[in-house]
Design the sequence.
């Protein structure tokens, strides 16, 4: 089992090693990062009493949470809990029937689309790019909000750094539809990194990725938080949430069950009740972060073969 490095809340001073970020990696130029460096204590985003009803069904019910510069906030919960709907409310893609969303203390509806494009970047579950754009062209789309500003002079550098950070260098001229699902997901991540915003909103960014790239994506998210950005991420893998989030919001039935540090939220009794499945919470032997597993009974021995049979042991080895 590979050891994960500590969360930013555990060791903010750990330097980024060469394995984490390429040389000349994306600079701390995001608006939220600049505000954090000036000592701003205001949340980067705030959701107050958000409710959503669709076709007479209540999807979200009086949901509130905040996320600040410098932290990773994970939204977790079983299927149908309202995680992706809540993220859509934050992005402005889903209208609310009640409640308020603020970006940097200003109501979401008061921002123009171009202003929002410079404040927050959104990674959806489905990338929505079906035309045969190359990977480089897709990443370049992330620079669109900065056209006509002094920062468009950085386009080539930022695009190159985003491609390097997501390990897509050998795919830059490949059409996006020719890539695997995981490779397309990494191209979409590179696009939002190239956008250089202070808020990253990620909807299940690890869903199509193998084990190594799951770790890479969450490490990138954590590095952006360490640089002063605000990261909100929807996750199904509770162990990843435990390893990389500073705070966790647990949802069920469209409501917030609880929110707080990982160790306060990820308890066996609470998770067992919410997921309607007995779970066990153990500790990573190196980092000490929580590992969440379903509670499983030992598999019964095949009929006619004692559980201690040497033949059975050979077959399972």
Sequence:
């Amino acid at each position: 089992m590979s050891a994960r490095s500590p969360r930013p809340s555990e060791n903010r001073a750990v330097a980024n090693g060469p394995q984490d970020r390429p040389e000349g990696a994306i600079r701390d130029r995001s608006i939220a990062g600049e505000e954090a460096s000036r000592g701003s204590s205001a949340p980067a985003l705030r959701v107050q009493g958000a409710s959503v009803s669709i076709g007479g069904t209540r999807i979200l019910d009086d949901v509130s949470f905040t996320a600040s510069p410098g932290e990773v906030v994970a939204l977790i919960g079983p299927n149908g809990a309202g995680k992706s709907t809540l993220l859509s409310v934050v992005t402005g893609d889903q209208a609310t029937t009640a409640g308020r969303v603020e970006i940097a203390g200003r109501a979401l509806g008061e921002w123009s689309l171009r202003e929002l494009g410079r404040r927050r970047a959104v990674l959806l579950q489905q990338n929505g790019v079906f035309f045969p754009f190359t990977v480089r062209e897709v990443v370049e789309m992330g620079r669109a909000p900065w056209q006509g500003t002094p920062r468009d002079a950085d386009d080539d550098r930022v695009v190159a750094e985003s491609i390097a950070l997501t390990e897509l260098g050998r795919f830059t001229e490949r059409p996006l539809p020719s890539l695997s699902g995981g490779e397309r997901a990494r191209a979409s991540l590179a696009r939002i990194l190239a956008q250089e915003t202070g808020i990253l909103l990620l909807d299940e960014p690890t869903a199509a990725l193998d084990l190594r790239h799951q770790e890479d994506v969450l490490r990138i998210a954590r590095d952006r938080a360490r640089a002063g950005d605000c990261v909100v991420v929807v996750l199904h893998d509770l162990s990843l949430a435990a390893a990389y989030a500073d705070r966790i919001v647990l949802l069920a039935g469209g409501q917030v069950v609880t929110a707080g540090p990982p160790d306060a939220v990820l308890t066996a009794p609470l998770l067992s009740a919410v997921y309607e499945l007995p779970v066990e919470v153990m500790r990573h032997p190196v980092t000490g972060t929580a590992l969440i597993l379903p509670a499983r009974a030992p598999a019964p021995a095949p009929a006619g073969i004692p559980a201690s049979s040497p033949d059975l042991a050979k077959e399972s080895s």
Notes: DSSP finds eleven helices and twelve strands in the chain. The first helix runs from residue 31 to 37. The CA atoms of residues 21 and 165 lie 6 Å apart. Confidence is low (pLDDT under 50) at residues 1-24, 31-39, 312-317.
